Amino acid sequence: MRSVRTVSVYVEDDVGLAFDHGTAAWVFDLDLWGVCGQGPDEPSALADLRRRVPNDVDLAVAERIEGDEQAFLRDHQPSTAQERQITMAILAETRPQTLHLVGSNSDRLLDWDDASRVLPSFARWRTLRQIAWHIADTESRYYLPMVGLGYRERAANLLTELRDSFAHVRKTLASMPKDMLREVDGQTWTSAKVLRRLAWHERGELAVMRSLHDRGTRTLSRTDGTLCT
């Protein structure tokens, strides 16, 4: 008989992530930390999450909230040492991949824009270079400041910024209190929320970057007959 475990799902509606006024479905289990399904509504977000978790997992909605950048009751629980360690491990795995993707490709490919790509109205990061800047901007100039952990200015060079931002996040998380709570401009941020968002964000953007890279390579190769990597 197949052994199945039930995993609690936390659904937020009317949020600005992958969609304008879309839905995101999160899980908090340590082995699925930072996993999120998204869609224009709850059924599609849950279906997307279903594709991202193992087959031996059953999903059960435990909490629903509505509105952009709110926090689940689960987010209000103090973050754990394990959640912090897993977040750091995920960032340590993803940042070298981002650095390699940016550092190993031509300016032409880094700045190629897929005109057919549909983004939510607030998103301005269309190219590989812009997405890479967006990763650092989000962690160093959005997530951490929103929970009251300071704002760091951009470095002039993108590769330097990716390295410096990673070091800043790592240092900040090492001393972050486990029970931070900050409400500002109608948003609610906590220690646990910052950790789960950090664990999710770059990993998701990397998947987008790889897909964009492959499409750009094929398109530019057809245009001039040469590879652009």
Automatic annotation (TrEMBL):
InterPro entries: DinB-like, DinB/YfiT-like. It holds the Pfam family DinB_2. SUPFAM superfamilies: DinB/YfiT-like putative metalloenzymes (SSF109854). Residues 91-203 form the DinB-like domain. Transmembrane segments: none annotated. Signal peptide: none annotated. Gene3D superfamilies: dinb family like domain. This is DinB-like domain-containing protein.
